[in-house]
From TrEMBL, chains A, B:
<dbReference type="InterPro" id="IPR001667">
    <property type="entry name" value="DDH_dom"/>
</dbReference>
<keyword id="KW-0963">Cytoplasm</keyword>
<dbReference type="InterPro" id="IPR038222">
    <property type="entry name" value="DHHA2_dom_sf"/>
</dbReference>
<dbReference type="Pfam" id="PF02833">
    <property type="entry name" value="DHHA2"/>
</dbReference>
<dbReference type="GO" id="GO:0030145">
    <property type="term" value="F:manganese ion binding"/>
</dbReference>
<dbReference type="InterPro" id="IPR022934">
    <property type="entry name" value="Mn-dep_inorganic_PyrPase"/>
</dbReference>
<keyword id="KW-0378">Hydrolase</keyword>
<feature type="binding site">
    <location>
        <position position="8"/>
    </location>
    <ligand>
        <name>Mn(2+) 1</name>
    </ligand>
</feature>
<dbReference type="InterPro" id="IPR004097">
    <property type="entry name" value="DHHA2"/>
</dbReference>
<feature type="binding site">
    <location>
        <position position="81"/>
    </location>
    <ligand>
        <name>Mn(2+) 2</name>
    </ligand>
</feature>
<dbReference type="InterPro" id="IPR038763">
    <property type="entry name" value="DHH_sf"/>
</dbReference>
<dbReference type="Pfam" id="PF01368">
    <property type="entry name" value="DHH"/>
</dbReference>
<keyword id="KW-0479">Metal-binding</keyword>
<feature type="binding site">
    <location>
        <position position="12"/>
    </location>
    <ligand>
        <name>Mn(2+) 1</name>
    </ligand>
</feature>
<feature type="binding site">
    <location>
        <position position="14"/>
    </location>
    <ligand>
        <name>Mn(2+) 2</name>
    </ligand>
</feature>
<keyword id="KW-0464">Manganese</keyword>
<feature type="binding site">
    <location>
        <position position="81"/>
    </location>
    <ligand>
        <name>Mn(2+) 1</name>
    </ligand>
</feature>
Length: 316, 316
């Protein structure tokens, strides 16, 4: 009986690599003193095609892309990088879950029997897996160390995300040594650059890559975000993007549509805005729009740094 | 801001001792490299008066009984030995949960933020805590090692429960060394004997300590269980208990009322039975009642070894 190790929907680098890495560890635990012992062989699977960043990482370290799985009815499974039913494969309630390794809030998945569930409040599942290797005395192969390092750099935005902890930094340092990566920062930029490749995307694709609607005091507000290693990568596309934002505003009946162009190296965001009332932006961020744009120094997070001040500006 | 560490309702030895032990570890983690860092001081609390076994253990190792807590509204808390809302203190949904350490099935408690959640499929929460001490390089004080050893012996019924793992046995061995306990088995019997003290209990109390009703093919069946280190402890009370079972049968309209007198050392159960149809017992267990009693060699679990054969006997 196989154990399928699977990450969340819309897989990111951490959820794909952690499935590969935890499969390896579960198989090792069959021989050595593991925290749990599985019967069959553990195999990594994914819930969809990997993104360009993940593909680059797998190729760089010569690791095969896992098979795609959609339905887990009747299967024995382990979860990495999520513990919520909403992010699970089809028929998760008809699968037997034997382990969960994660770093998010505790989700709504329950089990009928005791299982291994290790969740730590750190920046990346790979950091938790690094601990599990250490704690059970299993050596990390060079290529898997590479995948884990890339996952940490991806999830923590090269240690710049507010979710980053000392444990992530320590793990990254040790993993880089095993993987033979000399400059961690440089490698991080190389990894993150893969999702910065916007040349082949339409303006609409760029806006919609990560786009969310909000109701702010009765006004429909849409905010997209794209993370880039350098805003120059998108410089020549801004006019085109603004035209598209205007179209979207009319089509969707928005009060405001905005796109965050976040520079993960400079640590700031250029906000492109099309709005019925520019004073809202000034109220929210204490800076005037120049044309349709404003630079927000230090702003990296939509959830924590853009939505709350905007909501306040609308409600006051 | 204090962090209240609390075990489940109807506290057993593991849930009381694990609250004390995890509080100590959380406080140590403030100084050393911990897996999480809390702000205030961690203090153990309990959801009700400890049972005689737990009281004996606390006294033996000179550890103070934790305060009782009923409502956790607005409090910062950590959970040990459970992850289900049904076993939580009042207003758990209005508390901030910062950590869970457990060894049961994964319950329905969710969190809005990432937290430490370490659950292992082992016999006792103290075994998981032993791992957390080892993994973070914190030394276990002698008296806490005693509490942890007692918890393991209590939860695993001196390693006889089906939930016992190699990790529990290893942990117990190392803890016994730290606590200065030479004979683990003997100490286990001493611990378990405290709940075997039936002298001060009425016959009805003995029957009802752990009593459950079942519907078996339309017949009302009640089965109680009491675990004893030696059946001699209850020998002189059997007639009285049988009289009480007869009364309960009439009062409650039962087809069958039974009490399992489980000898945890000999690993078997004397079943006292009052029934409308003795043939059901014979069908279920392949042995005839002698008077109102039958010895079932190797039977320790109501859930796994008594209810299923009885249900089969009723339905066939
Ligand atoms: Mn992740
Ligand atoms: Mn327990």
């Amino acid at each position: 009986m196989k154990v399928y190790v699977v990450g969340h929907m819309n897989p990111d680098t951490d959820s794909v690599c952690s499935a590969i890495v935890f499969s390896y560890l579960l198989n090792k635990w069959k021989e050595k003193d593991g925290l749990i012992k599985i019967d069959g062989e553990a195999v990594p699977v994914i819930q969809g095609e990997p993104n360009p960043e993940t593909k680059f990482v797998l190729e760089k370290f010569g690791v095969e892309k896992p098979e795609i799985i959609e339905d887990v009815e009747g299967k024995t499974i382990a979860l990495v990088d999520f513990s919520e039913k909403a992010q699970a494969p089809k028929n998760i309630e008809k699968a037997e879950i034997i382990a969960i390794v994660d770093h998010h809030k505790i989700g709504d998945i329950t089990t009928p029997n005791p299982i291994l569930f290790v969740n730590l409040p750190v920046g990346c599942t790979a950091t938790v897996l690094k601990k599990l290797f250490d704690w059970s005395g299993v050596e990390i192969p060079k290529e898997l160390a590479g995948l884990m390092l890339a996952s940490i750099l991806s999830d923590t935005v090269i240690f710049k995300s507010a979710t980053t902890t000392e444990l992530d930094k320590e793990a990254a340092k040790e993993l880089a040594k095993i993987a033979g990566i000399e400059n961690i920062e440089e490698f991080g930029i190389e990894v993150k650059a893969k999702l910065s490749a916007v040349d082949e995307l339409s303006a609409r694709d760029i806006i919609l890559r990560d786009f969310k609607d909000f109701d702010m005091s009765g006004n429909k507000v849409g905010i997209g975000q794209i993370e880039l290693v350098d805003l120059k990568l998108i410089e020549g596309r801004k006019e085109e993007i603004l035209e598209e934002l205007k179209k979207m505003k009319e089509e969707g009946g928005y009060h405001t549509v905005a796109l965050m162009l976040t520079d993960i190296i400079k640590e700031g965001t250029e906000l492109l805005v099309v709005t019925d009332d520019a004073s809202v932006i000034e109220k929210a961020f204490g800076k005037k729009l120049e044309g349709n744009s404003v630079w927000l120094e230090g702003v990296m997070s939509r959830k924590k740094q853009v939505v709350p001040p905007l909501e306040n500006a609308f409600s006051s």
